[in-house]
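Help wanted!
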Amino acid sequence: MTAQTSTAHENYYVPEKSKMAVMATIGLVLSVFGAANVMNDMTFGEPGVSSNSKFIMYTGLAVFGATLFAWFRQAIRENLAGMNSAQLKKSYVLGMGWFIFSEVMFFAAFFGALFYVRNLVGPWLAGEGDGGRMNHLLWEGFQFSWPMMQTPQEAVGGAGSQLIANNGTFTSAHKSMAFAEASAWYLWLPLWNTLILLSSSVTVHIAHMGLLDNNRRKFNLWLGLTVFLGVVFVCLQALEYYEAYAHFGLTLNSGIYGSTFFMLTGFHGFHVLMGTFMLAVQLYRSVRGGHFTANDHFGFEGSSWYWHFVDVVWVFLFLFIYIL
Amino acid sequence: MGDHHHGPAKGLSRWLFTTNHKDIGTMYLWFSFAMFLLGGTFAMIIRAELFQPGMQLVEPAFFNQMTTLHGLVMVFGAIMPSFVGLANWLIPMMIGAPDMALPRLNNWSFWILPPAFLLLASTLFMEGGAPAAGWTFYAPLSTTYAGPSVTIFIFCIHILGVSSIMGSINIIATVMNMRAPGMSYMKMPLFVWTWLITAFLLVAVMPVLAGAVTMMLMDVHFGTSFFSAAGGGDPVLFQHIFWFFGHPEVYIIILPAFGVVSQIIPAFSRKPLFGYDSMVYATAAIAFLSFIVWAHHMYTVGMPVAGELFFMYATMLIAVPTGVKVFNWITTMWRGALTFETPMLFCIGFLVLFTIGGFTGLMLSIAPADFQYHDSYFVVAHFHYVMVAGAVFSMTAAVYFWLPKWCGKMYNETMGKTHFWISFIAFNVTFFPQHFVGLAGMPRRIPDYSLQFADFNMMSSIGAFVYGASQLLFLYNVIATIVAGKPVSDDKVWDGAEGLEWTVATPAPYHTFEVPPKIDPAHAHF
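Answered by r_m:
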């Protein structure tokens, strides 16, 4: 049925031994153990008691970051040394593709929560339908609208007069992020952020075309512009958060509107930060190392896929968080 | 770097730094067995407390920690990693690949698991004890009433998710990219097919679980209100997100088991698998349906009637592809030249008991009837029939079946058969009476019960102790085989075995298929 043959078939490069996995494990476990304890100190700890949680977390993050740096550097060097067969390169392509799919599903969980709350929970709390039969006992007077400008807790007079157990005080924002609340269209930051992110998807594509044309200057220029747009986006997002906390009364504690707003835009912003960093690394590799050729540039192409993914997520955010 | 035609490195560094799929598979298998014993210990404590009515041995709060940790350790620590270990060992050999597609990532996927479970187990010694909200950790028990251990637990779940996602991406890349020339998709062994689909499910739903625990973390520490009605959220939202993960999760556990059974039954029937194509399509259909049935876990939570009906009918549909599978296995055996070695016995045990578990699942899927069964011992009996007699029995069959290929030695058949019969009988003594007490109204997750349930509970406990002890026999048999088993010289080991893994030497060399094997184009499927 089968026989071992020695016909010309490229050898798949299987690295012999690697310390990367163990180092990354140490980094990851210390990071999360430290982070968990930092949070526990914050919520359950006695004030004034010092702990070494932060030290553990930062040590872990440092080890983790250093390991990832070494790991990626090694992978890049192996590729430059010609050790990667076409088949191995395809493994990296598949890996990146399915990783992005897993990210899509992560965002899906938060979008799912948003849709469920807006379409079902909100009306039920306000007394609509079968789900609303408890309204007159628990949340009498609560009116649902989106953005939700008054929490059920506030509708009944605050945490003190609420009948059931709760895990906090949920205040209300006095101003939402909706377009109608902006004083002028050009002062509505999400619009600018949308323009910036959509343009950056175009610029990164132009950079890619430059690379395919063997035009190094064009590639560096347009990739640099993309990184710049990414940085501007993150800065504007930070400004928006500052506005929300300082002037809108919109915080993580502002009920489900604040929760979904900050978690969705926050995770997205974090992904923009990661994508910007990834593209910046590719820019550095191209400018300083002269890496990438027209037919071998997956480090860049994978990062650009990630960038397009982040852009698509933003389109949905813009639609469901800011407009609708 | 360097040539890789030599054997494994010496000492601990072999295991810490390895990139070899067989080493990593071995580590997964041993780790999962250790977790099986740990989770089993928790189960023994539960059954000891329930041996008689009244409070006997442990505090109720500790009892809750035991049910919680038993479930978490068995699902995430024992069953899932055991099948990942099997995938690591077998998939490259079955498709004629030199190794997994991303070997370093593979090692990382494994090594983050032990510290994660160490952290989880360490919560037992924290102030306030381990998480106690059940393995499904519903809000607000796991948020409003959470102690510090829940924070550790949340990060453990994150690490397990990272491990599963990386492992699955690796499996998908291996299957899609590393098949030997001529090994088309519809020629792949069914174990490879079921794992490909399982890996897809894992990549799709582990991030959703990560989202759920992240929302918990934010609710506990940062004042968000995802699961708090006072802020406009909803505790039921947690259940929806959890079960959107949780239902595909049960197929993540059982699909690789289907794959194992589909390899073993043909080998001992000396016939090719009946209905190979329909097996593949049925697996895909089950995976698709698993995404649209999650709320059948939540019939009693107060859903709109339209929702109850939709989830009821969608759930019943799953019986169709599952039935296709069961009939295909039976038809494979029909007029086969059957022999009943230990792996075959466990597979037949699987077939009978899993089908019972499937039927009780069908009973539970009926929304109006479920109002009676919900959160009763009937549910406990149902899911142990599919988790233990389904997943664990098939995993045990797999170990007996492939162990001679892995270590080049044959296990003691008498001891193996003894292990099967004790397991089979003890399992039924443990869990069959739970159907009765459940239907009569005994709730799950309660350390005490009404007097009329006493006899059946004592039976259950005795069965559980015997079942637990019989696993030590299994452990002994495996170790005795590795240390001093009778050497096997035949590459094929079993005369009915089919597939590329049986064409390499026994024991399997450290590196196999560095050059892809040639596949006979006339061969139908493996």
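OP: Thanks! One thing I noticed: The radius of gyration of chain B is 23 Å.
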